[in-house]
Write a structure and sequence with these properties.
The structure is a single chain. It is built from eleven helices and nine strands. It is α+β, with helices and mostly antiparallel strands. It has two domains: 3-143, Jelly Rolls (Sandwich), CATH 2.60.120.280; 155-278, Homeodomain-like (Arc Repressor Mutant, subunit A, Orthogonal Bundle). The strands form two sheets. The chain has a five-stranded antiparallel beta sheet, covered by helices on one side. It has a four-stranded antiparallel beta sheet with strand order 2-7-4-5. Helix 2 (109-122) runs antiparallel to helix 3. The longest helix has 19 residues, at 204-222.
Length: 306
């Protein structure tokens, strides 16, 4: 037996099927003893775990680990359909927290998932080849590489960003502490920094201040609010503080922004803003190297608890 086959047998597929649920159906909170991959084929769903919620749409792929309580709320407007595969594997081979990504048009995951369904429906010896397919899927979901347009976000980071989105639903945009975000995502501040740099290419402080500056620019361009009101609405102490951060971080003044001056914003900050308002992380370019703040290089004034 080859080394590849021996490694693949560490994954033990148990069952694969397609399920269809009527409008508004639910799966009550439960804990499973194996891993489950859930692939949305039609409709939408809300996955809940640990008091947090993730929206799923057609094409989304969810990995649910064992011993994690979770529930599903299926589409409220139409019948939903999804494929699933249950499997077991050696401890430490997959994340201990839920993980979601998208099976896109340019990556192999949708084809691999369809192949899994075909194997289980047509072959009596479906488990050995299915184990190899699942192993590859796990590697792609947890480590990549994946083409642009996919998103694979650590569940703790997704939860922390959900906290930001909730806090920023209304003005003013409250300045959030690093320890607050870390606590919301049930992680250490060190891990939060690492995940932000991996996902967005910048530190949490730089990313969040960049998001507030983007909102301030929108208010300057789209409203007649004075700089003092814009500053306070976007979490800056006053107009002087806002002007100082604009000059330090962007190299322009609020007056120049109102006049249409270009605002150098790292792609990672724009991706964060899209994530906060849409719940998706669409990576159109590789993230900036973790050693760089991607253009917003000065230490941001977000509160950092020491």
């Amino acid at each position: 037996m080859s080394d590849r086959t021996q490694r693949a047998l560490a994954v033990r597929p148990e069952r694969t099927a397609i399920a269809e649920y009527p409008v508004g159906a639910e799966i009550a909170p439960r804990i499973i003893e194996d891993y489950e991959l859930v692939w949305m084929l039609h409709g939408a769903a809300t996955f809940a775990s640990g008091g947090r919620h993730w929206a799923m749409g057609t094409g989304d792929l969810l990995l649910v680990p064992p011993s994690v309580e979770h529930s599903f709320q299926w589409d409220q407007r139409r019948t939903s359909r999804h494929a699933y595969v249950h499997f077991r594997l050696h401890e430490g081979m997959a994340p201990a927290a839920p993980l979601m990504c998208r099976a896109g048009d340019q990556d192999p995951m949708a084809g691999l998932l369809r192949y899994l369904l075909w194997l289980s429906a047509t072959s009596e010896r479906w488990q050995p080849p299915s184990a190899q397919v699942i192993e590859l899927l796990l590697a792609l979901v947890t480590s990549g590489p994946l083409p642009p347009g996919n998103f694979t976000m650590h569940a703790g980071l997704a939860t922390a960003l959900e906290h930001v989105s909730h806090q920023w639903r209304q003005m003013p945009l409250r300045r959030l502490t690093i320890s607050e975000l870390a606590a919301a995502g049930a992680m250490s501040s060190t891990l939060l920094h690492r995940l932000f740099r991996t996902e967005f290419g910048v530190s949490p402080g730089v990313a969040l201040e960049g998001a507030r500056l983007l909102r301030a620019r929108a208010l300057l361009l789209d409203t007649s609010l004075p700089s003092e009101a814009v500053a306070r609405a976007c979490g800056f102490a006053d107009a002087a503080h806002f002007a100082h951060r604009c000059r330090t971080v962007l190299g322009v003044t609020p007056r120049q922004l109102r006049g249409g001056a270009a605002m150098p914003v790292p792609e990672g900050v724009e991706r964060l803003v899209a994530t906060l308002w849409t719940g998706r992380s669409h990576r159109s370019q590789p993230a900036t190297h973790p050693g760089s703040d991607g253009g917003l290089g000065h230490a941001a004034d977000v509160h950092q608890d020491r």
